[in-house]
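>> received
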Amino acid sequence: MSKVDAVKTPCIGICSTTSVGDSICRGCKRFSTEVIDWNGYRHREKRAVLQRIDKLVIQIMEPRFVIESLDDLQQGMRASGVPVHPELSPYCWLHNLLKKRHRQVRALEDFGARCRSAYADQPLEVIWEQADRELLQLCEAHRQRYFPPELV
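>> returned
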């Protein structure tokens, strides 16, 4: 396996860049150019994209959720048909689970996670939708700051 192939795509099967034309994928949070050019990226470039996504997701998810069991989270995700990306943090795993299956997840505890006390009285879908909206805003701010239109 070459280094180009060694880094897995963060795609979770909800691509809004290719299907809707979004500048940031609503699923994996990559920029449209990153989705399109992914297979041509070198190992270092792919890792940089994954690290950026990971940091932004953790920033939004960690204040809302506690992951208590990595094993339960991994098992629950696999049972739900959501891939576990080994190079991303468990908060990215949880984000991907909720992105793909938030309507089916009845109890986060079944997945080794829980809401932090500040959010415990809110419905999971409300917490999730707010987190995903804030994450997309954070990604967009990052894209505008580091990839202004005149550079693309």
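>> The chain has one domain: 3-141.
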